[in-house]
Amino acid sequence: MTKIIAITNQKGGVGKTTTTLNLASSLGALGKKILLIDMDPQGNATTGLGIDKGSIKKCIYNVLVDEEDIKNTIIRTQFKNLDVVPARIHLSGADLELSQVEARELRLKNALMKLPPMYDYVFFDCPPSLGLLTLNALTAAQTLIIPIQAEYYALEGVSQLLNTIRLVQRHLNPKLTIDGIVLTMTTNTNLSTEIEQEVRQLFEKKVYKTTITRGIRLSEAPSHGLPIIYYDSRSRGAEEYVLLAREVIAHG
């Protein structure tokens, strides 16, 4: 059975795309079949997989706005067991174009219902906002992974996200759950340790044991169009994302 996961946090710069790319590719390397859907108009997950946006004929925009069959937008990447539905800048207009459409929050969910059961996991890389694109992802997802960076403003905006999740559960997707919270950009400082302790105290068992350390190799990898496991498999970032992937598998 396919598990559908949205990776979301409306605060920017918390490692959403980094986590989506590297968790998806690590799961693929572990033998799971993965579809990554880029829901962010910036398309960083798309370029982070080495895909030239200029070569893309159809993307998630066409699925949401034109009701294109999602199977026609899937691109097979060069990485083991990993496919992607890409995004281009056109997606930035989707919120406005869908604003007057009936059942606009269900476009992504309805599209996925037409997809054959060919994947173990489907991931959504959500934009740093709580607009219609994220709402579509939250409505279509079964569960959420929330990256929180181990920095001073770590919990800023998380209460707003939790309120949005509750509203989605009440009106659109009652079965939506939080699979886990992943601490990102951790450092060997007292502040980072204090933030981690605070997050673990607040969310308890929802926080993954694996944390993602801030690292140069992890930052470099997307500019080469490679997930960290393929850019430098011996780096700390690669090891941590494989550990996180194993935790996600263990969650079922």
UniProtKB/TrEMBL annotation:
Span of domain AAA: 2-178
Gene3D superfamilies for this protein: P-loop containing nucleotide triphosphate hydrolases
Reactions performed catalytically: ATP + H2O = ADP + phosphate + H(+)
SUPFAM superfamilies: P-loop containing nucleoside triphosphate hydrolases (SSF52540)
Alphabetized CDD domains for the sequence: ParAB_family
Annotated InterPro entries: AAA_dom, DNA_Partitioning_ATPase, P-loop_NTPase
Subunit organization: Dimerizes in the presence of ATP but not ADP; ATP-binding is required for double-stranded (ds)DNA-binding. Interacts with DnaA.
Family, similarity comment: Belongs to the ParA family.
Protein name in UniProt: Sporulation initiation inhibitor protein Soj
